[in-house]
Each structure stands twice: as structure tokens, then as C-alpha cells.
Design goal:
By secondary structure, this protein is an alpha/beta fold. About 50% of the residues lie in helices and about 15% in strands. It folds into two domains: about 130 residues, Rossmann fold, CATH 3.40.50; about 70 residues.
Length: about 200
């Protein structure tokens, strides 16, 4: 079946995100910043905010667990916009090209806190090119759990995902999508994505 709907992840596909960008300013060495991000403000903790846990509650829970790191933990959300490096130009160009063609429905599926995503909408105009964006924190589900993919299908009338293509930088998110029959490309860079879309005769 011809591809008719393309679903983009946002973080590290269209907008660069890495908390180390902040913590490299806070700690004397990159190794210390890596340790803190991997062991204190780790992905499992962050993803609970993506699933809807309030930022203030998450911060207080982590401070209670690691009181010796209170200052650095509170920086995570006090200075959270410093996690972002900005648009990924090549991917934004691909999105604009797909939109200009008029040949595809363009949707986004992102793991992102509901409290914080309005900032992205306000600061990255290209997000307006999507027909709609499903934000994990708003629907209280997150990738790679199957429920959010099935909710996406139901919400936008995608059926069994025939004719849909999903683009995400996370291997586990891509694998979960494929297990549900959603054709997927793992994003490793804009040039590789452009070539993959050309191979699929989409660009």
C-alpha cells in the first residue's frame, strides 16, 4: 500500500535534546555530567513526567531520595530549556518538503511533559505543519508502551497502520511500533532519513 501518513517523533528527530547540555555547564567535567544524568536524573525518572507526573512532584521525590544533590536536581526543570540545542535543520527541511507536497498526512507522536510542551509549540514554528501532535503527558501514556500507539491509531483513524510510516530515534520505540504493524524508520541523522524516504519513493 502507498504511504499516506507519516508520523514523526520530535525530540532528537526535529529538535535536539540532551540534559548534558545543561549539566556540562554545572559540573567541572563531562564525565561528572554524564554520571549525574545517567544515575540521578535518569531516563526512567524523566519518562514519568512524560507520562503525566507533575514536574514539581517529580523534583520533590528525587530531592527526597538524593538530598545531597538538591541544587543540581532542581536545576533540571528550573533551567530545562537549556537541554535543547534547537531545530535539527535537515529534518525540518524534510518535514517542510513533505508538507509542501500535499501528499501525506503529517502527525507527530512525542514523549514530552504536558506542562512543558507549550514552550515547544511557541518556539518552533515548524510544529504547526503537523495536522496534530499527540503528546504523551497529555494522554497519560508513553512510548514504547503499546497503548499509546493504539490510541494514536484510534484517534486519527489509522486502522491497522497500513500505509503509515513512523520515524523515531529510539530503537525500543521503533521496535514497539513494528510489533504493532507500524512500518518504522529509526532516525540516525537527516541525510540517512532522506535516503530512506527516497528508497521508499516518498521524497
Amino acid at each position: 500500500m502507498r504511504t499516506h501518513t507519516i508520523i514523526f517523533d520530535i525530540g532528537n528527530v526535529l529538535i535536539g535534546w540532551n540534559p548534558r547540555l545543561l549539566y556540562n555547564k554545572v559540573f567541572p567535567t563531562p564525565e561528572e555530567a554524564d554520571w549525574f544524568v545517567n544515575n540521578i536524573t535518569h531516563l526512567d525518572w524523566n519518562e514519568e513526567q512524560d507520562r503525566g507526573r507533575p514536574v514539581a512532584e517529580a523534583t520533590d521525590l528525587l530531592v527526597a531520595e538524593y538530598p545531597e544533590w538538591e541544587r543540581e536536581i532542581r536545576m533540571y526543570y528550573d533551567r530545562w530549556t537549556e537541554h535543547f540545542s534547537g531545530p535539527i535543520p535537515g529534518t525540518v527541511a524534510i518535514l517542510k518538503s513533505l508538507h509542501a507536497s500535499g501528499n501525506y498526512r503529517l502527525l507527530a507522536l512525542t514523549n514530552w511533559s504536558a506542562e512543558l510542551f507549550p514552550w515547544a509549540r511557541e518556539n518552533f514554528a515548524f510544529l504547526q505543519l503537523f495536522e496534530d501532535i499527540m503528546v504523551s503527558g497529555e494522554v497519560k501514556m508513553k512510548k514504547p508502551n503499546p497503548d499509546i500507539y493504539l490510541h494514536l491509531a484510534k484517534t486519527y483513524g489509522l486502522g491497522d497502520f497500513s500505509g503509515c510510516l513512523f520515524i523515531d530515534d529510539s530503537l525500543r520505540n521503533v521496535q514497539a511500533a513494528r510489533e504493532l504493524g507500524l512500518a518504522s524508520i529509526r532516525f540516525t541523522g537527516a541525510d540517512a532519513l532522506q535516503q530512506a524516504l527516497r528508497d521508499e519513493k516518498i521524497l
